[in-house]
Design goal:
51% of the residues lie in helices and 24% in strands. With 118 residues, the chain is α+β, with helices and mostly antiparallel strands.
Length: 118
């Protein structure tokens, strides 16, 4: 009788400790399950927001560097004029026959295409 009772106790202890081991290993760090989603989220944000913004900024810098005397431009304030003077950071626009205005080069929003360059 004692042998039967002792044998049942050993079987219960052996199966009980084996059942606890998978539960402990399956409760690993919860961050590892979310890590792929976080990486995918940042990749989507990069390709939808950051990369296009960098591309537009690169095109804008190229446009501002290519401004030359005689170009017709529109400023961010909506003033249309022709470039009559340039420095490294300033642009002088002729907006009327005897009226010139000085702007920061970054205030140029758009360079109008020349008549011959359609």
């Amino acid at each position: 009788m004692w042998r039967l009772l002792f044998a049942q106790t050993e079987v219960t202890q052996a199966t009980g400790s084996a059942a606890e081991q998978p539960a402990a290993s399956s409760q690993a760090n919860p961050l590892t399950g979310m890590l792929p989603m976080i990486v995918i989220f940042f990749a989507i944000m990069y390709f939808l927001m950051i990369r296009p913004q960098q591309k537009r900024e690169k095109e804008r810098r190229a446009m501002l560097a290519a401004v030359a005397k005689g170009d017709a431009v529109i400023t961010t304030g909506g003033i249309c004029g022709t470039v009559v003077g340039l420095t490294e950071d300033r642009v002088v626009l002729r907006v009327d026959e005897k009226v010139t205005m000085e702007f920061v080069r970054g205030a140029i929003a758009q360079v109008m295409p020349r008549d011959g360059a359609k």
